[in-house]
Structures are given as structure tokens and as C-alpha cells.
Design brief:
4-stranded mixed beta sheet; about 35% helix; alpha+beta
């Protein structure tokens, strides 16, 4: 890898069309898990002009039509959509959810002869590094925080003329492999008719400066705000949304590999979600234990099989013995779907909050939200490694 380079990551706001769909899917996951913590859920959402269509496969207690629609409308209302082309009160909502396939259920369910199996095959990655105190790559971390700070200001009434749909991108200059400043910052954000990019620039510049570490702000000519010139029509009225289309935004911003599976809309038997969470948990604890400066972990699963087919640890040349780390991990955490679910206590309604501004790099919460961000395994790992 070159010593000095530019690296870019992007984020999107909670009002981005794809993120609206992720949040609706996960709000429904939470509702089903409240009724039955062992619900089986694969919920996909599609959004376009004043229309939301929900499909997928579930095995869960029924939610009434009125409650189901209230969840969808309240999610959209909370995001801030009261526009002619997408308004929480005017949405046409179509529910096409149906019963989970018996063939899939047979592979996943535990029986007298076998443990709970993975809900699908696939590979999942976790990553951690020392670039931020959250042990996240800096470019994606600051991209998320920038858009969240702007969105919070819109909701607080500080930026009344701006809308909920936004995208952001930060390019960092890295010296000897370490981020030292922003080389460029890009924000495209929905706004009221009649505003120009110069006005919007002055409104949001303070929130960008607030987000970045002191002295990291880019040169004025590299601050790009609404480069198309106009962004009045936004949200699903301007561009259709779909669950699971922002998987790099959801994870590490391109700084680490991705297995391809999306998270939102899925219960924790789906290893696309739970194994990606535990892989982040393990990688973060390896770095928190100072066993490596950065760590990538890969897990692989087969549908219906409980134990992973492989566990791969890569310290990118910063650890003495990766085999020892892998052995310690296997000894400390049961990496079956049931083992992950129980270790991280994932059968709880904790998913709606994950569906915007990244699933990783967040604070663990008292009700169990973001449990995969804990570093409670670090000392045990150090003891095992010696």
C-alpha cells in the first residue's frame, strides 16, 4: 500500500430513499420481535412517489393492518417527510409479506439431532482499526457524523429550509497510512425552491467544521455543495428506494471487504446480519486489546449448518500470531447462530436505530442496542494470547 494517499467514504442521511426503506424494514423487525423474540423475518421495502410496498417471508405472530400501517407512517413521519410527493399521511401501503419457506425453516430450526442452523450461506466480514476512538475507519466515521449533525440541526429547526434527503462524502489525505486532514468534502442536500448552492454552503459549513477534528477542514475550493445546482425534488419522489442497497455505507465505507449481504429487515438467525455483527465485535476487541493495530475477520456459513465453515483473521501485518488470535476467538465465543444470538443478546427490538448512520462505531446502549460495539472481550483475549 502507498504511504501517502487519498481515501474516500460516503454516507447518506436517514431521509435518503434507500435508508427510508431500511428504517421501515427494521421498524417492522422490532415490532415483530416485541411480540415474539424468536420471530423469523426477511422484510424488504420498496418506496416511490407516495407509495410503499413491503414484501418478504416471515414466521411470526400477526400484526394488525392498522398497526402495521401505523409503523410505516410513523417511521416516515419521524424522518421528516411531509412533501407532496412523499407524505406519511398520504402513503399507499401494500403489504405482501407471506409465510417463511418450510424448506428454509427446516434447515434453521433446532431439533433433537442438531443445533440451530444458519439462515443462509454466505461470507461476512468485521473490521476495526485505530483511526478513531470508536476503532472505525476515519472517512466513514466522519461522513456519518457530518450528515447526522446536519440532520439533527434540521430537526431542531436550525436549518429550516433544508430537507431530509442528503448524501455526503469525505476524502481524507493519509500520510504514512494515517489520516491527517480532509482533502475534499461533498454534500448534496434537498432544499426549498429558490435557494442556491452558495446559500446552502453558508448554512451547513459550520456543521462540517464541527464534525471534523480541529485543523482538518478542507480548502474552500474543495468544499463541494450541491454540485448539480438544484435539489428540490428528493426522497422517493425523486429516486425510488429499496432495502439493502447501502451496504458499504452501513459497514466500513470501503475500508474493509464486504460479503455482499444486507442487514436491515432480518432477524438474528440470518447470519448476513448476526455474523457481521459478531465479526465486528471480535475485530474491535482484538484491536482494543492492542493485539493488532487493525484487524479484518471473515466468517463463512452454510445454510442449515450451525458452526462456521471458516474463521479467518488478518492483522494486516500488525500482529505477531494471527493463528493464535483465531484459536483464542474460537475458544471464547460460540460462533453458531444460536451462540452469536445469545452472546450478543440479539433477540431484542434493537434494530430500527441501526438503520441510519452506520451499524458500527456506535455507543453500546443500556437496553442492549449495539451490543457488538462492547470491548468486554479484550482482557480475555489478552489472557489467552499471553
Amino acid at each position: 500500500m502507498p504511504k501517502n494517499f487519498l481515501f474516500t467514504s460516503e454516507s447518506v442521511s436517514a431521509g435518503h430513499p434507500d435508508k427510508i426503506c431500511d428504517q421501515i424494514s427494521d421498524a417492522l423487525v422490532d415490532a415483530y420481535l416485541k411480540q415474539d423474540p424468536f420471530s423469523r423475518l426477511a422484510i424488504e421495502t420498496f418506496a416511490t412517489t407516495n407509495r410503499v410496498i413491503i414484501g418478504g417471508e416471515i414466521r411470526a405472530p400477526e400484526i394488525s393492518k392498522s398497526k402495521f400501517e401505523d409503523i410505516v407512517r410513523n417511521t416516515v413521519k419521524e424522518i421528516g417527510y411531509e412533501q407532496d410527493g412523499f407524505h406519511h399521511a398520504n402513503l399507499e401501503i401494500t403489504n405482501l409479506l407471506h409465510e417463511q419457506s418450510a424448506d428454509i425453516a427446516m434447515g434453521v430450526d433446532a431439533t433433537d439431532n442438531k443445533d440451530e442452523g444458519a439462515g443462509d450461506q454466505g461470507i461476512m466480514f468485521g473490521y476495526a482499526c485505530q483511526e478513531t476512538k470508536e476503532l472505525m475507519p476515519a472517512a466513514i466515521h466522519y461522513s456519518h457524523r457530518m450528515l447526522q449533525n446536519i440532520t439533527d440541526a434540521i430537526k431542531a429547526g436550525e436549518l429550516k429550509d433544508l430537507g431530509p434527503d442528503a448524501k455526503g462524502q469525505i476524502t481524507l489525505y493519509c500520510e504514512n497510512g494515517i489520516p491527517v486532514r480532509a482533502d475534499s468534502v461533498l454534500v448534496s442536500i434537498q432544499h426549498k425552491e429558490g435557494m442556491d448552492a452558495a446559500q446552502i454552503r453558508e448554512l451547513i459549513r459550520p456543521y462540517i467544521i464541527k464534525t471534523l477534528p480541529e485543523g482538518w477542514m478542507c480548502a474552500e475550493e474543495k468544499l463541494l455543495i450541491n454540485p448539480t445546482g438544484n435539489f428540490v425534488i428528493g426522497g422517493p419522489d425523486g429516486d425510488a428506494g429499496l432495502t439493502g442497497r447501502k451496504i458499504i455505507v452501513d459497514t466500513y465505507g470501503g475500508a474493509a471487504p464486504h460479503g455482499g449481504g444486507a442487514f436491515s429487515g432480518k432477524d438474528p438467525t440470518k447470519v448476513d446480519r448476526s455474523a457481521a455483527y459478531v465479526a465486528r465485535y471480535l475485530a474491535k476487541n482484538v484491536v482494543a486489546a492492542k493485539l493488532a493495530q487493525k484487524c479484518t475477520i471473515q466468517l463463512a456459513y452454510a445454510i442449515g449448518v450451525s458452526q462456521p465453515l471458516s474463521l479467518y483473521v488478518n492483522s494486516h501485518g500488525t500482529a505477531e500470531n494471527e493463528e493464535k488470535i483465531a484459536a483464542a476467538i474460537s475458544n471464547l465465543v460460540d460462533l453458531s447462530p444460536r451462540g452469536i444470538r445469545e452472546h450478543l443478546q440479539l433477540n431484542r427490538p434493537i434494530y430500527h436505530r441501526t438503520a441510519a448512520y452506520g451499524h458500527f462505531g456506535r455507543e453500546p446502549q443500556t437496553d442492549g442496542g449495539f451490543s457488538w460495539e462492547k470491548t468486554d472481550l479484550a482482557e480475555k483475549l489478552k489472557e489467552k494470547i499471553g
